[in-house]
Design a protein that fits this description.
The complex is a heterodimer of chains A (320) and B (213). Chain A has 320 residues and is mainly beta. Chain A is 13% helix and 44% strand. Chain A is globular. Chain B has 213 residues and is α+β, with helices and mostly antiparallel strands. Chain B contains 2 helices and 17 strands. Classes of the chains: A mainly beta (320), B alpha+beta (213). The A-B interface holds A 39-43, 46, 49, 51, 99, 136, 223-224, 226-231, 239, 272, 274, 305-306, 309-310, 314, 318-319 and B 162, 169, 171-172, 174-177, 179-182, 185-187, 189-197, 199-200.
Chain lengths: 320, 213
């Protein structure tokens, strides 16, 4: 499932989060995770010795057996009035069919809180994805995948969706890539990596517009620094961290139907344990048309191929 | 007169050589047997105390010996606990310890892979059992599993077909747990690289290199 689809809608109708409450809960959760599982990171999507951590805004760049839950209180935007508060709870499940091919399902349960009125609840459009890893070059820490999302029209509730979007499905062919810089002789910059995606959303019908959706993430992996460059005497918490910044753009292609170009930047950090990862990112609108204020999103990711390598975490079609 | 002296020297030399040989054989025979050769191809040797003997099928392997598999050769051992170790071409493995208790439920196996690649199918014993292999970069510890370890100058890597292996960096003490179908890499002086799924081609490669049949 391409998370960017959700963002393209989310940007229009958000309000700032409850920062105090969000910070407190996240801090407690993260502390509990690290206390309970103080082990070094595991690679989830990997090209050679390079691991690409799960991203919170952009889609995963290669097939894996995984599941996550994610919460988000995005920034305010249009067309939903600015005084609406929105909270999303996201679930995601990915299953490999072969080593190179996976299918995924994802949906979002949204709560909208208009001022002086009762809250609205409902599911967004269910999305399925198929992704195929076409190139994996371990020595050069490079991978390239292709995929397609299908948003099933009619599966979401109109009361939580932008006008005109409800009931209209879409198809999103996409490409994905990841490249680590560890094969270059650049010393302490070797832990840097870049990953990204480029999708083209084709709406089933008007007034939903077709949309171009490029996105990039740049990350500096402390686990890579410790295991491939130099072992610094850092605390356990720091050793498992990967600071990451995601950038996601949407721009209408063809008939705009009132939509405009949006840009979101999401700086944050992820911590990887044995078979799990916790990530948290701020959501910052880059342009006025994208929205106002700040949002926050947090994700708890489990890697089924690590935790259950011989059952649910195994490709459906695999050699014994 | 000179002939008699020569003959006496020859006899003394022969007796001394016999005594030394007997002594060394006796040392080998009294050393604890750790395993035996069950399959071999090419030239393989066991070395200890500066002595080197060629290995053939059914030959014993003793504690303290280093098994040397020449280039182009392969060797398979069945250890005292029933574990099977298959060594790839160009490997050197030292048997530091291979103790089994009287009821065969507790094992203390400590090996050193100086260089090369092996596959170990480690028999399941009690929780207290130790099966540990070290190399210059780190150690790998298992209970019961089917796994591979390769030691190269400056690094090691482990791949696991079944079970779990814990790989520890000698330099930093950091460890990584590797489940089945996963593998990990470790460079000298650094933390282990995070484990990742090994692809079927990677397993096929190490299986082929350690397949003696």
């Amino acid at each position: 499932m391409n998370k960017t689809n959700l963002r393209s809608e989310r940007h229009r109708n958000q309000r700032g989060p409850d920062w105090g409450r969000a910070h407190g809960g996240v801090a407690v959760f993260l502390t509990a995770c690290i206390t309970l599982f103080p082990q070094p990171a595991q690679a989830f999507v990997a090209a050679g010795d390079r691991m690409f951590p799960g991203t919170l805004i952009l889609p995963q760049i290669a097939p894996t057996d995984e599941a996550y839950i994610q919460g988000a209180t995005p920034f305010s935007g249009t067309p939903v009035p600015l005084d609406f508060r929105r909270t999303d709870a996201i679930w995601f499940f990915g299953k490999t069919l072969t080593e190179d091919l996976a299918i995924r399902l994802r949906d979002v349960y949204t709560r909208l809180d208009p001022p002086s009125r009762s809250s609205r609840y409902g599911w967004q459009t269910l999305t399925a994805n198929a992704q195929y890893e076409a190139i994996l070059d371990g020595p050069h820490e490079f991978l390239f995948s292709v995929g397609v999302d299908r948003q099933f029209g009619g599966t979401g509730k109109a009361r939580v969706q932008p006008p005109g979007f409800s009931g209209v499905g879409a198809t999103v062919p996409s490409v994905y890539f990841g490249k680590g810089l560890g094969d270059l002789d650049i010393g302490y910059l070797r832990p840097l990596a870049i990953s990204g995606t480029f999708g083209y959303l084709i709406a089933d019908k008007s007034p939903r517009p077709d949309v171009l959706m490029p996105g990039f993430a740049i990350e500096y992996s402390i686990p890579y620094l410790e295991s491939k460059v130099r072992a610094l005497d850092l605390p356990d918490l720091i050793r498992g961290l990967t600071p990451i910044t995601e950038l996601f753009l949407t721009t209408p292609a063809g008939q705009e139907h009132g939509t405009t170009t949006t840009a979101l930047i999401a700086p944050g950090v992820s911590y990887a344990g044995e078979g799990w990862q916790f990530g948290i990112e701020a959501m910052v609108p880059v342009t006025r048309t994208t929205g106002k204020g700040l949002g926050v999103t947090a994700q708890f990711h489990v890697w089924l191929d690590y935790l259950f390598p011989n059952s649910i975490g195994r490709p459906v079609f695999s050699s014994p | 007169m000179r002939n008699r002296l020569m003959r006496r020297r020859t006899v003394i030399t022969a007796v001394a050589t016999s005594l030394l040989g007997f002594s060394s054989i006796r040392t080998a025979q009294t050393a604890q047997q750790a395993g035996m050769v069950v399959a071999a191809s090419g030239q393989c040797f066991a070395e200890a105390g500066g002595q080197r003997r060629a290995l053939r099928i059914d030959d014993p392997i003793y504690l303290g010996e280093t098994v040397d598999v020449s280039a182009g050769a392969k060797l398979q051992l069945r250890m005292a606990d029933g574990s099977i170790i298959s060594l790839a071409s160009g490997s050197r493995l030292k048997i530091n310890n291979f103790g089994i208790d009287t009821v065969g439920q507790k094992r203390d196996a400590r090996l050193t892979l100086t260089t090369g690649l092996f596959r170990a199918v480690v028999s399941p014993l009690s929780e207290l059992s130790i099966f540990e292999v070290d190399c210059p970069a780190g150690t790998a510890e298992v209970r019961s599993t089917d796994w591979f370890m390769e030691a190269q100058p400056g690094s090691m890597r482990v791949g696991v077909l079944a079970g779990r292996v814990v790989m520890t960096s000698l330099a930093t003490g950091r460890r990584v747990t590797i489940p089945s179908r996963w593998g990990a890499h470790l460079e000298v002086g650094l933390d282990p690289v995070p484990a990742r799924l090994w692809r079927s081609e990677e397993f096929a490669d190490v299986i082929a290199r350690t397949d003696v049949s």
